Amino acid sequence: MLSSIRLVLQPAVYLLKIILILLICAASLPSIAEHVEPPTVVKVNVLSPFSTQQERALLYSFRQTLLEEFNVEVTKTLIFWQRQSDWQQQLELNQPDLIIAIGNDSFNKIKDLGLSTPILAMMLSKDLLQQLRQHPRDNIYAITHTQPTERFVQLAKSLNVYQAQIGSFVSPQIKDQIQEFERLARFYDLSYRPVIVEPKRKGRDAIRQLSLCCSVIILESDYVFRPGKVRKSILVNAYRQRIIVIAHSESVLKEGAMLTLFTQPHNIGKQGAALYNQILNDTVSLPYQYPASFSISINRKIARLLGYDDLKVGALMRKIETLDLIQKTMGDGKMQTP
């Protein structure tokens, strides 16, 4: 009789214990919440010509990363210099903690205004970033969306092309890039030949040089050839001569490039948030940065026709990351790979 009573009461005792534990936890929740630090609130003014989808993705990622990872809440004010005639007066009217300049034109408009507020320029071109690295400016920080040259060369190396020869389009205005390509080509045991062209020649000279150039050609930016018929003609001729084109944006992929290296705007926003957190804590070690992350896209039709239908994005990215680690370990390209 007693044992049967115990069997009946035992589940009730367990249930009572569970209820007591839940009540204790519920009672302790307010005290736990009291120890959560409220976010630091900062005012950020954003200067751009007009709103775009890319800009919205970048700014959303910037705000969310600061809040979720660094407990910093952003209140932003958008300033469009193409629409607001008083944009210059608006820049520091509300005493912001940071001014973000989106793109080259926005940065060029404010870089010499002598503002007291820190400036974070994002989506800058490579040449502007290099200018800042060569001539640092107090209170100015920057992130480019263009890839470092070594990343393009690493991707070319990752393709394992037999007796690979790489080339790049170079205009007379940016001939200094040749030395950087030559240094990287030596490090990765690749042959290199620049295709020095003058865009005013409508691309005929570039097409002529392609046949003598290389097995892989790199188009780093829009600087030499802007989007249009000339660039598309060059890409078509590269394909006809079975030359692999590695380019800098997905738009070039649609024109005939086989591979593109790029960084999504939301990743630039995340990187910008991390840099601004360093600014707030006075721990900035690298004020002018290339993208920390990258993506690869493949034109499957071109890849199949050129005999690379088995390419895998993940495998290529791992190879690039490995080569980058080797390069840094061996002195950032000052030594040659074994």
Automatic annotation (TrEMBL):
Gene source species: Kangiella japonica
Keyword Transmembrane helix on entry: yes
Signal peptide stretch: none
UniProt-recorded name of the protein: ABC transporter substrate-binding protein
Source organism phylogeny: Bacteria, Pseudomonadati, Pseudomonadota, Gammaproteobacteria, Kangiellales
Transmembrane intervals: 12-33
Pfam family, one: ABC_sub_bind
InterPro entries: ABC_transpt-TYRBP-like (IPR007487)
Keyword Thylakoid among record annotations: no
Coiled coil: none
Keywords attached to this entry: Membrane, Transmembrane, Transmembrane helix
